[in-house]
Fold:
Amino acid sequence: MGYYNSIWSGEDGGPSRLGIANHSGDLGLIGGRKNVEVTSRFVPLATMVVTRDTGEIYLLRHGSGDNAKCFVEKIDPISLEPIVTSLELEGGPTWPGSIAVHSNGSIYVVFGNHISRLTHLSQISRKIALIGPF
Structure:
């Protein structure tokens, strides 16, 4: 049980919120290149990214309002463009939410008043019984 053994499997680097990568060295995203180029992509309402295996980066994005939805993009580590996008996930009241990669490889998203489990970007969602953003 716990977090996936990757460089950045949860918000703030994991439950201790140390804000540091889980492995020493580079982030393993650009193959150890010495020259780094900066790439940007305009993405409104994005919350955070997590990594699973080398080169697998997942971005949590969402809408706004009282019945906001969210979705996850698997993005290219160089261009930052989406490779695969999940279906819309149930949400609720807008809140930044959270995303993490579990030790079983599933991606868990908490947004609004729902928690969703994604396996290969297919989804299982459950409503949280409390009213309010989580």
Q: What stands out?
A: The longest strand covers residues 68-75.
